[in-house]
Amino acid sequence: QVPLKPGRSLMDWIRLTKSGKDLTGLKGRLIEVTEEELAKHNKKEDCWICIRGFVYNVTPYMEYHPGGEDELMKAAGTDGTDLFDQVHRWVNYESMLKECLVGRMAVKPIAAPKEISSTLSEEKKQLNGVLPEKKVLGASVKDITPSYDWFQTDSLITIVIYTKQKDMNAELVTVDCQDKQLRGEIIVDDHSYLVEVDLGHAVQEDLAVNIAEKVGKVEIILKKKDNIHWKMLGRPLGSHNTFIKRTDRGLFYRKCKLVSKTEVTHDTKLFCLMLPKSTHLQIPTGQHVYLKQIIAGTEVVKPYTPVLPFLPLDFKEPSRSAGAHIYLMIKIYSCGLFTQALDHLQIGDYISVSNPEGNFKKSQVQTLEDLFLLAAGTGFTPMVKLLNFALTEISCLRTVKLIFFNKTEDDILWRNQLEQLALKDERFEVQFILSQPTKDWVGKQGKISSSLLSEFVKRSTKDSKVLICICGPTPFTEQGVQYLKDLGYSQEEIHAFTA
Ligand code: FAD
Ligand code: NAD
């Protein structure tokens, strides 16, 4: 991120795109762009970039780009899709850059999709979810490629996905069914398998997902609306039956209802969102989701990390949050574009929520003895589920220490709950450190520093297995990681939460 000049915020950009100004230089015309043509537009004052087959004139956007002009120029006159995906796959550039659209790259035609029929045919291989040869990337991928099949009773349709994974679990499966469009995504390591079908007939709103964890079989069970015999499951949609890298799969959103909004501190609220009945979605510990809202006619997307409704003292996640609800602890900034719009949502309003993402793996915690959590401000959010998971599931765990950095006492999130937890569980300890305390604060003060860290981050025994998780404003996280490395902690012993 680079500091932007005054008048170059996202809101300013949205205003410019609405001003009616010709941002492409083509007076609203869309053209077909060849590679040779694209390559000619490679200067700051004439810069075209191709993202996923669409070409944008990004020259007017240069000064508004949060990553800076140099970052954009890396892709000048070329296909910037990979570069874009590495940095901010989740940013909705289609909406953000729609006024900069020059046109499409010349593309090859795509074969029309075929119906998925339950009768035997030459397409049998495809029916049963075995990828046709051309989509298989290589022998090793073929070995692990999931497949699917389906069957029916009078009242039910069951889609069975054979993941070939021994440790399949509910967090790796996301299913949505809206307006007869079924989408089931299964995460297999860093790959994603997708079943995406326009169903042949209507189904009821609620669906069920059964997982046979040991054999890696996933069943999606749909209830027929009418008890008729289905001749086919439906029509495959664009990415049906594909197995690709997880990061190459576009984000999918479903609309969730805001059911409650409660104050946590003077500027932070706990939002409770309800998933549709026709969605199966569980957000793994350490992962975040993206929220999407239309602000001044432009789709804006920001990441947030789900928490629990409260810190459970007896470590049993309340059933209310077991799937149907997502809790988000969000700080409302007085000039924040997204959080201001969020704060204006009324109970009963809807907001789009994406599938989960993130590179934290529970296996990082599995054999831990000491866990240190360094959180600043809302950087506390990923620590909530992590704390709960570590204290509940990790039997070898000896200590969990949360070192929580805030500006003032009033900013401390869930202070009471944290103090109660520390009293209840002797493995857990919390330390609050304030950067702008009032004069009656008797606790620690300051910002993250090498001396603070060497005072608070200590192994319980000389070679105990340790993990230090860190999350907060980018400079906080970057400085923290550097201090920890200087103190001798290895890369594997540090996890930084970032986008
Ligand atoms: P913005 O409009 O982006 O601005 C926020 C504030 O910063 C404003 O006061 C603005 O004036 C100021 N500001 C903006 N740009 C600059 C600049 N360049 N220099 C100085 N000041 C600036 N937040 C949560 O509250 N809860 C979460 O659970 C959470 N999870 C996250 C997970 C991830 C993976 C990441 C990356 C971020 C997470 N965030 C979380 C932060 C969240 O995504 C947003 O960044 C935040 O809500 C602010 O959005 P906004 O549009 O309201 O603010
Ligand atoms: P804040 O401004 O209230 O600051 C909280 C504390 O952070 C300060 O008291 C200070 O100790 C430290 N801090 C702030 N700026 C610092 C700097 N420049 N250098 C060193 N230390 C600094 O914090 P906030 O407004 O609650 O912001 C929380 C941040 O955490 C946001 O930037 C948000 O994007 C980020 N966040 C990231 C994730 C994630 O990546 N997974 C999740 C949640 C929040």
From TrEMBL:
Presence of keyword Heme: yes
Residues annotated as domain FAD-binding FR-type: 251-363
SUPFAM superfamilies linked: Cytochrome b5-like heme/steroid binding domain, Ferredoxin reductase-like, C-terminal NADP-linked domain, HSP20-like chaperones, Riboflavin synthase domain-like
Domain of life the protein comes from: Eukaryota
Catalytic class of the enzyme: oxidoreductase
Family, as annotated: Belongs to the cytochrome b5 family. Belongs to the flavoprotein pyridine nucleotide cytochrome reductase family.
Protein name: Cytochrome b5 reductase 4
Organism: Phoenicopterus ruber ruber
